[in-house]
Write a structure and sequence with these properties.
globular
């Protein structure tokens, strides 16, 4: 079993805290974190492979990291438990098969697919944001 061997010195710990804090803020603010913030940061700051960054990002999500952010949305009545529950079941199943696929493909292809997907999502979000916004 391959492992990620990054020394946990002060610089590494501070960088990880910075990445975690930024991902947490963005998760609470716009609902993103792992794939959009943490995975690229682990690749760029620590040189992790795409799959090692994905595995590390998924590992940190195992505990209920978003509990406090979810609580705020729930209190405001803007989180749908039924929809989240259905997606959670599908997410678990999809995560299992997606991780199997990612581990079978060459890391460069996984990285390329990730980049294409995030570029598409980014361009779509920019387009719809411009199309529907009122700048006045």
């Amino acid at each position: 079993m391959a492992s990620v061997d990054i020394p946990l010195n002060l610089s590494t710990i501070l960088t990880l805290v910075m990445i975690g804090a930024i991902a947490g803020i963005l998760s609470g603010f716009v609902g993103i974190g792992g794939g959009v913030v943490i995975v690229p940061a682990l690749i760029f700051f620590f040189g992790l492979s795409q799959v090692a960054a994905q595995g590390t990002s998924l590992m940190l999500m195992l505990p209920p990291i978003g509990a406090l952010a979810v609580m705020n949305y729930w209190k405001e009545g803007v989180a749908d438990l039924r929809m989240a529950g259905i997606m959670a079941v599908a997410f678990v199943i999809g995560g299992y098969f997606g991780s199997k696929l990612a581990l079978q493909l060459p890391p460069a292809k996984v990285k390329l697919g990730f980049g294409i997907f995030t570029l598409y999502v980014s361009l779509r979000m920019i387009y719809t944001g411009i199309k529907t916004s009122t700048w006045s």
